[in-house]
Amino acid sequence: MAVICYILGANPHVSVITGFINRIWRHHGYDNISFLQNGVFLVHFPSKEARAAIVQGGYVLFDNKPLIVRPWSADVPLRKEKVVRVPVWIRLHDVELKFWGKHCLERFAGEVGKVVKCDLYTEQRLQLAYERKLVELEMDQALVTKVKFFDEKDALCIARVEYEWLPVMCASCNGFGHKADTCVRKKMTKVELFGLLETKIRSRGVSRLLDVLGNNWSYCTNHVSHDAGRVWVLWNPNLFTVSAIESDAQGIHLKVMLRPGAKQFWLSMIYGFNSAVQRIEMWERLRSLHAIVQGPWLWCGDFNCVLARDERIGQPLQLAEIRPFLDCVNWCGMSDIKAVGSFFTWNNKQGPLTRIYSRLDRAMHNDDWGLEFQDTVTHFLPEGLFDHCPCLISLLGKVEDRKTSFKYFNMWSLAPEFKAIVARGWDRQVVGCPMYRVVQKLKGLKGMFRKLNRSNFSNVEQNTQVAYQLLLECQRRVQALLGDCGLVEEEQSAADTYVGLKKKRDEFFKQKAKAMWYDYGDDNTAFFHSIIRLMRRANKVLEIRDLNGQICTNSVGINAAFEDYYKRLLGTSTSVDKIHFSTARKGPLVSADHAKMLLAPVLGEEMMGAMFDIPGIKAPRPDGYSDQFFKNAWEVVGSKVIKAVQDFFNSGKLLK
């Protein structure tokens, strides 16, 4: 006869387990202990009665962690199984002595979980600082941090809940006692191309390092420019074809081709000198490379320089230190890759009063990289015993785009039939309060606007380019046949078509880019495309760590992580505490004149003024309509909107 045992959230040494079992079950006369793997062990008993007494004997705790016990038979697997509920000791603080009756204490603890037993000191009132109870918690239940109740005078009382231990579960291996970010069994990331900086391996030591890494790697070093071999680049030749362009003491510059997809990019692995004067040569080298680079370009490494004031803490920073790096970045058109993990990538490992943090390491790319490898993300991992954080660059596959909801575009108001469409939707008969009628009319307009967009505004950028080319062709024909009135009229018609499409395109770009200014001299098409790409990359969440420490990279997992976070942050609906008006009246009160002003009716002119003061490029509301829609259609919708707002102020009720 035997039982399977393991301690939830702990894996003590064999000698500790032996002593613990001997202390708690010695009087049952167990035979021996058989130790398995992963903290699981078997305890053998001489009879069924002894085993039954153990299984039915209630919870046993080891350092506040439960000992999981279940009877063993030949068909029971020798492994840890899913735990549904666990016992936890809790402490209830701030409970007055008059509530220390048995029924009151059990009721308070029952708000946290199922009460198992009461602590002896609490039961005998030998320790009055807090109430201590053993309660049973469901593994997936929300934790209670406060217990609220009313005393005999109807005054609110709050007891604070303290948990002596809570189970921590790993989402990676489903084990207890650690989270996924510290899980030793977690799948390791396989790196296929990497750079080593500050190796200090001289030429004669190269062969020894290759013996350690194996013969499956190709490599390139800058030993020719610096005998210490400050920069190494190694890659898997089965996945990459690499051509060395040039190297110097502060970097290696390569051209890389990914074999599976035949995509190419330029790579600059950087390790800048500590001296600002010596780094000038590096900035000049990068500028000269910019003239010959065609296509995606990636910079990564230790630049030994920061780009902004907030990238260093603990030491003064002069703008003169930043300027050369910033000028080089702007000249080459580089920007930081979206990064997660540690913001400060280096620290001097000194004490709290002399610790310096800096963002010296980074990965940057040009616009071509952003187009070719849209979903690249950089991970800055913890530095461990080193002073620099390792940098991991992931070329993620295409992240599936979520289905976009309705969004009002300002360019729709340029259509001649715009107001007629709004009037047709606004004349629809809807029964209900004024606000409900407005909301339903707005919903009905969405289908009409989608149809308008498909017929008049689809491919607006391409259509604008085609119209411009037609205009140029007409002008060339007019120049060839001067005096042809028909061609002149055709040119004017082409110009009108182009101007109309250009207005639509400009409105579209301004709204998408949220640019507060616009230069009509050169159209700024490249500017707006760049801004839109930057905004899309900034708004796109490529990965996120959920509450269990698990990294999610697909849309389903990312959405669930956000939902779980805000559910935990905002909590669930609870009963609202009573408002004691007698207490409120003792505080500051508004005067009679102020009260009269607050109760005065809201005028339509005030609402219209407030609406028209909002910039038209502001983000839309949850229903997809921006404030610009109401400005564009105010002649049609204004009166109904005013009635809806006035009804809210009169009734105090808002649609859910």
UniProtKB/TrEMBL annotation:
The scientific name of the source species is Saponaria officinalis
Alphabetically, the GO molecular function entries are: catalytic activity
* Domain spans labelled Endonuclease/exonuclease/phosphatase: 190-381
Coiled-coil ranges per UniProt: none
Superkingdom as given in the UniProt entry: Eukaryota
The protein in question is named DUF4283 domain-containing protein
Q: Supply the InterPro entries for this chain.
A: At4g02000-like, DUF4283, Endo/exonu/phosph_ase_sf, Endo/exonuclease/phosphatase
Per the UniProt entry, the signal peptide is: none
Q: Give all residue intervals belonging to the DUF4283 domain.
A: 2-76
Q: Name one Pfam family in it.
A: Exo_endo_phos
